[in-house]
Amino acid sequence: MMYKYLDKVNSPEDLRKISDKDIPILAHEMRAFITDAVEKHGGHLASNLGAVELTLAIHKVFNSPYDRIIFDVGHQAYIHKIITGRKESFDTLRIPGGLSGFTSRRESPHDPFGAGHSTTSLSAALGFAEADKIKGDDRYTVCVIGDGACTGGMMHEALNNCKPELPLVIVLNENGMSISKNNGAFASYISKVRASGKYLKLKQGTNTFLSKIPLVGKWLHKAISAVKNCVKRIIYKSNYFEELGLYYMGPIDGNDYEKTLSALRLAREMKRTVILHLKTVKGKGHPGAESSPEGYHSISSVSGESYHSVFADELISLAEENKNIVAVTAAMGIGTGLDRFGERYSKRYFDVGIAEPHALTFSAALAADGLVPFVALYSTFMQRGYDNILHDIALQSLPVKIMIDRAGLALGDGATHHGIFDVSILSSIPGIDIFAPVTYSSLRAAMSEALKSDAPVAIRYPNSSEHTEIMSRFKRSYGLLSPLVDFDLSNPPEYVFITYGALASQVALAAQILEKQGIYAGIIIAERIKPLCDLLRLVKELNGRARRIVFAEEGIKRGGMAEGLLSSLMDAGFDFSKTEYLISAIDESFASPDRVCDLYDYVGLSPEKLAKRMKKE
Question: Does one domain contain both 506 and 420?
Fold first, then answer.
């Protein structure tokens, strides 16, 4: 498709050549481009459509990459990527090794700080601003925060350390949640006055004039400021940001390019820390996304029944019988399926916002008081609550049920969203049982087991549907949730794969490749990762009868299931001379390729690589 203005923009310099009166046309073209790219490849649509004008205005006023522009999460940075020369790479959006769906230092010098988790931006921006001050640089740092980041504690920790004199502009992009009480016609009128050039010049001129009055000038200035602040508190209640000593402007219509541009120019002129509060429409310009911004927040190829939908349905069913069951999530009600639980049991549902540590400690206290909390988090976000799991849940042996969604590699979202560390992280914490069900029925069984347990339990599952065609040939080795096998234990094959989770499908394909080459390889699927009693028993039975056993693990090798199992066998004086044991896992890597590729092949877990590993090629 040909674009009148978009085709001319390949850098911030190109953007600054376009007249402000033509920006609305460019904004329309950018929305069309983004919509087309996301509908093809998936990604975050609504958040980017709402941030078009503010991103254009930022690049008009500030000089990237000399001036740093940092986006919170980075999922609202698609327009920023287009402006900074990555338009031609959008055909590789969310493809492993292609254009990241988030900001990435490796991708461009215009991305000073990478991010895929929320609430990190202001801490990073503050770090850049303080470093520039120490070095004597005159660079500006712009931090764009949105999508509920104010619910995360890390943002407030950073605000607590912001200094008024830093050249730091914090753009608060409010696109659907209320941040302050400055609502209504009067507040809107005041915000327009306070954000206008005439107001600022008058204010600065008055301050200078008052300060120069002999003897009483400084006293008069302080007295008038005190009266002004008193009146302002009565009218506004309290402005959180100004109480911290930061200059606040807004709220301003962030989808009005001219108003946003004017406000950013004024913020730059002030040469101090400024909070610029913008209100934008999430999904702007797309009828579906505007009416349902949550539904269009991220477009994914996964549809229909999935593990998280089965989890939600089962929890609703269990909660009907057990009135003590409560559900907790951290701003991921739709993603985890718990929004439906909330619709059914509103008083027993808690969405605590982007605050995983709080979600876990809060759940610990619920459990301590006799309730049965199921806290659902994405694997990649669970990492943020490591101390809370260790210190508040495990150390006190509180029976919190941690449901770990999106376990395994995140093919679209990439390194920041891979769920490859949770097994290693949790395995190092005493007293936690870990399940990895590979069927919907075993997910329900794991939840039932967790409900009976007086200890902490973690249940991990992928963002996919079950592979019924693969699972049909497996049977239980010993009993409920014991390892699944596809061969006769009394007559095991020479070659055996041991795996868990969604990787079972890749392993099954590897076995098919070997079978075509005349090599029969059996498969064991572990659904209980910790404790490993049943799997240890099974490996001991196979020792000396199988020629080679390959552990295939869609997770980090260090501290993973395979290393844990082999370490336990070693401690027990196990004889490793009878059977060869190999591990295929993600070894010393964040699984972040620098070229377009098959991600499973890149980390050595594709069917072809697994087959070669079994043959030791």
Answer: no
**Residues 416 and 503 occupy one common structural domain:** no
State how many domains the chain has: 3
Token pair listed for 274: 């400024």
| Backbone phi and psi for residue 417, each to the nearest 5 degrees, phi listed first | -120, 5
Cα–Cα distance for residue pair 128/21, rounded to 1 Å: 33
Q: What is the CATH number of the domain that holds 280?
A: 3.40.50.970
Is the peptide bond preceding residue 214 cis, with omega within 30 degrees of 0? no
Based on the fold, state whether residues 313 and 274 are members of the same structural domain: no
From CA 212, how far away is CA 274, in angstroms rounded?
26
27 and 110 co-located in one domain = yes
From 53, 107, 174, 356, the catalytic residue: 356
Mean pLDDT over residues 15-32, rounded? 96
* Residue 416 shares a structural domain with residue 539: no
384 is catalytic: yes
Q: Are 558 and 567 in contact (CB under 8 A)?
A: no
The CB density around residue 200, as the number of other CB atoms within 10 Å, is 18
**Same domain (yes/no): 324, 409:** yes
The residue written with tokens 């000399």 in the block is 66
What is the rounded average pLDDT of the residues 418-425? 97
Residue that is last in its domain, among 460, 493, 518: 460
- Helix pair angle (257-270, 23-41), 10° resolution: 100
CA gap 452, 448 in Å, rounded: 7
Spot the catalytic one: 31, 60, 384, 444. 384
428 within some domain: yes
Element (H, E) at 440: helix 440-452
In a domain, 196, yes or no: no
Instruction: From 258, 278, 67, 72, select the one nearest 84 (Cα to Cα).
Output: 67
Q: How many CA atoms lie within 13 Å of 48's alpha carbon, on the beta-carbon side?
A: 28
Specify whether 46 is located in the same domain as 176.
Answer: yes
* pLDDT tens by residue, 476-522: 888 889 999 999 999 999 999 999 999 999 999 999 999 999 999 99
Task: Say whether 282 is catalytic.
Answer: yes
Rg (CA), the chain: 28
Query: Is 306 in contact with 465 (CB distance < 8 Å)?
Result: yes
- Rounded distance between C-alpha atoms, residue 141 and residue 462, angstroms: 38
Q: Any idea what the CATH number is for the domain that residue 529 is in?
A: 3.40.50.920
Of the residues 31, 282, 348, 401, only one is catalytic, namely: 282
Domain holding 524, by residue range, is 482-615
Helix pair 217-236, 197-211: axis angle to 10 deg: 140
For the segment 252-288, what is each residue's pLDDT rounded down to a tens digit?
999 999 999 999 999 999 999 999 999 998 878 676 6
pLDDT at 219 (0 to 100): 62
Q: Assess whether 506 and 440 both reside in one domain.
A: no
Cα–Cα distance between 68 and 80 in angstroms, integer? 12
Contact 614, 519 (CB under 8 A): yes
